[in-house]
Task: inverse folding
């Protein structure tokens, strides 16, 4: 069975289950299209199958498509596109939970540009839809909290920013690899 994907007016034809669709940047590889989770294929561009939209009809596919954002963020941190204490940081809260704090205003534009530049397919959400989708996830502690982060990498001053707070342990329990987001990548 062949899968036809249309991007920018061109057609890419690939055989189901093939190794087409891996994005490689720098020294890291992000395999997004050929994994199986809970019996559902992660082929992102599977938009038409028997006349139905898989992402709208299948809640597992919607969940997997959204969680792919964290895999992309991990790759961006590895390549130092996202910077520690500017776009994201981690800390231990008063309950002892390990928290990932993401700065929406800084990282989301970079995420969309990165996906466009490296041709990584992802769920099409504006920043408002991203926040409200994140709000309903079990690993989201606060989707619209206040955090103190730096305005840019060279600045020593911290500014109050609107952030999302993610429970790292709950995110990793879902099988999402985010190890490059857990340390200071500016060293």
Result:
């Amino acid at each position: 069975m062949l899968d036809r994907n249309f991007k920018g007016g061109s057609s890419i034809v690939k055989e189901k289950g093939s190794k087409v669709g891996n994005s490689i940047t720098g020294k890291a590889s992000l395999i997004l299209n050929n994994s199986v989770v809970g019996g559902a294929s992660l082929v992102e561009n599977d938009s038409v199958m028997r006349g139905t939209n898989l992402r709208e009809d299948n809640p597992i596919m919607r969940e997997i498509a959204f969680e792919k954002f964290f895999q992309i963020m991990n790759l961006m941190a590895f390549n130092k596109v996202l910077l520690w204490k500017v776009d994201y940081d981690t800390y231990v809260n008063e309950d002892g939970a390990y928290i990932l704090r993401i700065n929406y205003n800084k990282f989301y534009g970079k995420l969309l540009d990165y996906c466009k530049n490296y041709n990584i397919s992802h769920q099409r959400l504006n920043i408002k839809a991203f926040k409200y989708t994140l709000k309903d996830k079990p690993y989201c502690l606060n989707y619209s909290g206040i955090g103190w982060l730096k305005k840019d990498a060279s600045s020593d001053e911290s500014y109050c920013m609107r952030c999302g707070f993610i429970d790292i342990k709950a995110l990793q329990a879902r099988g999402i690899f985010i190890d490059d987001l857990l340390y200071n990548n500016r060293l």
